[in-house]
Amino acid sequence: MDEKTKRQLAVRARIIKALAHPARLFIAQTLLEGERCVCDLTSLIGSDISTVSKHLSVMRNAGIVQDDKRGNQVFYSLKTPCLFNFLHCVEAVLQESKEEYNVIK
User: Fold this and answer.
1) Checking DSSP bridges between strand 65-70 and strand 73-78, what pairing results, if any?
2) Residues 6 or more apart whose Cβ sits within 8 Å of residue 7
3) Are 77 and 66 in contact, with CB atoms under 8 Å apart?
């Protein structure tokens, strides 16, 4: 593998890694419905604000979400709504695996 390909794959892996946590997947799924303030996400996840902010920071740095500060509140939205396609694909893989597993049993 050449260096250019390695760099391209590393960038893609960074995006996938940014989603590779249950709380971050939950945030992504929630933001598919529309923007949310950090306080709403904190309440929905059931974690403290610093933990949720850290998850959002990881997602923002990977280019998954964007933020909009309004007064004392920060609202987050998906930067790329095509993320829905990725999450739908994950569900399809799970369904297919489940069906294959049931056939083997």
Assistant:
1) antiparallel
2) none
3) yes
Q: Is the pLDDT of residue 103 over 60?
A: no
CB–CB of 20/62 below 8 Å?
no
Structure tokens given for 6: 């390695």
Residue 87 lies in a domain: no
- Residue 90 inside a domain? The answer is no
d(CA 10, CA 16): 10
pTM comes to 0.82
Residue 21 lies in a domain: yes
Confidence of residue 104 (pLDDT cuts 50, 70, 90): low
The CATH number of residue 45's host domain is 1.10.10.10
What does the DSSP assignment read for 10-46?
Answer: HHHHHHHHHH-SHHHHHHHHHHTT--EEHHHHHHHHT
